[in-house]
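Reminder to self: tokens first, then the designed residues, so the page reads top to bottom the way the pipeline ran.
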């Protein structure tokens, strides 16, 4: 299969034997990697390369395009094949890799990761790029290609450079990220008057050899977007405003007994209070077995009768009756 031919440009296009190329790159010069061979083969992991046929093979030429459709499922080493379709000296022409790209935001003033968080105005910010694209930048140099950090202010647009605490402008476009973990250092003074208060959107992207144009997948050639809130007050701390508790109202009705006077409802306002009122305990009191006068009502109490009192009373009555009968007979 012959892949599309595009013009070769200077920069990071020259591929030597054993280099890593990334899905989406186009316009690569693979002359040095291929020698006189025009075919490459891929074997599944664990296959006996020397004694078996490749699992997949391609015919290639310069300029070379690492098509996502063709190479997306076949990452790893691709071997040069001779005219018979056999490995040519077990030589790896190049390795195909699936790119990955991520970015973090660091507050260097307090040494805290503030990705998707808040930074106090005036703190210094650094960026950390985590990627496997660093092998690209060992191929050569370029002032117009690399990894770009996009910082979008609340009002829109993006910056090409950021001002640090010394007033220096630090370019954030076309960075040559030469290590898997790359830190810019404190390049952004968030308190500078050029930067407004609000939420900034931040992401990284890599379009070296048009890889983003051909393979613009989040997390691959474009990082996931992150946010950074630049303001004086921590958004997690709210300001408590004292509130006035509503007053309670109790409606009382007059108890005037004069029919000519209509009952009147009086609204009494009782200010609300958070003070806890202690309710006095009620102590039981023994009421004397006597007549208790309380205002207009008289309560009469009768002593409690002991057990057997009714029987004794009956016997006394019988005896009294007998005595009366005896007296009558004597008269």
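Designed residues (331 positions):
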């Amino acid at each position: 299969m012959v892949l599309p031919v595009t013009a070769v440009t200077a920069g990071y296009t020259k591929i030597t034997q054993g280099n890593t190329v990334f899905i989406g790159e186009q316009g690569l010069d693979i002359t040095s990697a291929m020698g006189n061979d025009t075919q490459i083969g891929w074997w599944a992991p664990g296959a006996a390369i020397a004694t078996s046929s490749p699992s997949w093979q391609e015919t290639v030429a310069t300029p070379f395009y690492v098509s996502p459709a063709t190479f997306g499922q076949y990452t790893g080493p691709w071997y040069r094949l001779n005219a018979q379709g056999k490995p040519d000296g077990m030589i790896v022409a190049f390795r195909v890799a699936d790119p990955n790209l991520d970015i973090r935001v660091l507050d260097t003033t307090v040494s805290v990761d503030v990705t998707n968080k808040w930074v106090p105005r005036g703190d210094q910010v650094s960026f950390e790029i985590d990627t496997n694209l660093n092998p690209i930048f060992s191929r050569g140099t370029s002032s117009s290609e690399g990894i770009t950090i996009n910082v979008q202010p609340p009002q829109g647009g993006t910056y090409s450079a950021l001002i640090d605490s010394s007033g220096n402008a630090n370019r954030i476009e076309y960075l040559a990220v030469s290590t898997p973990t790359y830190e810019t250092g404190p390049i952004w003074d968030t308190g500078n008057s050029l930067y407004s208060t609000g939420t900034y959107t931040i992401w990284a992207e890599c379009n070296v050899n048009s890889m983003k144009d051909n393979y613009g997948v989040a997390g691959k050639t474009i990082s996931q977007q992150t946010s950074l809130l630049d303001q004086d007050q921590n958004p997690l701390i709210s300001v408590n405003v004292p509130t006035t508790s509503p007053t309670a109202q109790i409606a009382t009705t007059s108890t005037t007994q004069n029919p000519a006077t209509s009952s009147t409802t009086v609204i009494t306002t009782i200010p609300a209070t958070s003070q806890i009122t202690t309710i006095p305990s009620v102590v039981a009191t023994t009421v004397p077995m006597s007549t208790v006068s309380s205002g207009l009502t008289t309560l009469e109490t009768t002593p409690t009768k002991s057990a057997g009192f009714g029987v004794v009373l009956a016997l006394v009555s019988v005896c009294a009756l007998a005595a009366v009968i005896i007296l009558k007979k004597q008269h």
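Residues 101-231 form a domain with the Immunoglobulin-like fold (CATH 2.60.40).
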